[in-house]
Design a protein that fits this description.
By secondary structure, this protein is α+β, with helices and mostly antiparallel strands. It has one domain. Strands 1, 4, 5, 8, 9, 10, 11, 12 and 15 form a 9-stranded antiparallel sheet that branches. Strands 2-3 form a two-stranded antiparallel ribbon. Strand 4 and strand 5 form a beta hairpin. The radius of gyration is 23 Å and the shape is globular. The two termini are 22 Å apart. The protein binds zinc ion (ZN). The site of zinc ion has 8 residues, from helix 4.
Amino acid sequence: MEYKSLAISFRIELGFHAANNEGAGGTNVMESRRITVGDKEYDGISGEIIRHHILEQFVKLCQANKVSLHQRCHGLVPDRCREEVKQWMQNHNVERLFPEQHYSPLSREILNNCALCDAGGYLVALQQQQDEVEGTLKRDSCFEVGWLISEHPAIVDYTQHSAYDPDPKKHNLFVQNMRTGIYGGVLRIDLDRIGFNDWWWLEQNNQYAIGDAERAKRIRLLLQAIRHWLLSPSFAKQAGWLQHMSGLLEGSIVLSKDGPAPFYSPIKFELENGDPNKPIIRPNREYRDLLDKLKDACGKTLEVCRFDSPDEFKKRMVEIEEKFRALEKEDNKGDDNESSTSS
Ligand SMILES: [Zn+2]
């Protein structure tokens, strides 16, 4: 597969949301995530939250496209493949996991059986006392998402609520914040790690746990999940605080054939008037020009495409997804059971 990595640098506007909160810290005020730079606070939404919601989309797409998932991975549970690791150990009469003997064949089976464990990674820690077997096994996520950070100081408004309690004497007042802003974000997918068994070298076996056609399909569905999320982001508290999208969505998509795809942040750190005591965050107006210049210098190893609106983003992403769909068909001649309505 010629493509090794894909990155997206983007700006998005989210209005009137409560996307990501720090907790109440012992008070009745629910604090939002913020990043302090110098004497100013900027609004932040954690990449881990975004990754979780993208994986939710990915699981739905896997189910719709009949891509294999562990039974518990249909529900996106945090401890993922714990039961499968235990089952494998029991089946192979293994009481304790040793890297040299077990990591490679066990990882191969986990990756083969589950697209979520493959793309999203896992961490399993088993203890003799409670699990009757012992050992740890982990896989890093195949994609990373940076924090969304506002390109201007945080705009936060507080509103007071009361939680329902059947006892009328209890008011249970709490304070919630509402935020709005234009955010810069980056994300990157290690396409060449989808299906890749990180421990293959311990037994000098195949590097990939699944075939190219299945890899292409998982990649396409992960790209589709990212597309769905960026076009209609989901967050915490959206049942009653659904963020107001303005339609501002712009950025650059970079596909790399020879290593991690580069990305540049749409925000940048500066010293105001060169004063070391006045650090600030500003929009980085050049982030896409820098990527275009880099593409010129890299030649055929990079593909860079811009988008200036949600519809352009959709078109560009579908074009890339189709490259991977073609690879699925190449390997699956006469077995085209893909629903064309799935996108
Ligand atoms: Zn799984």
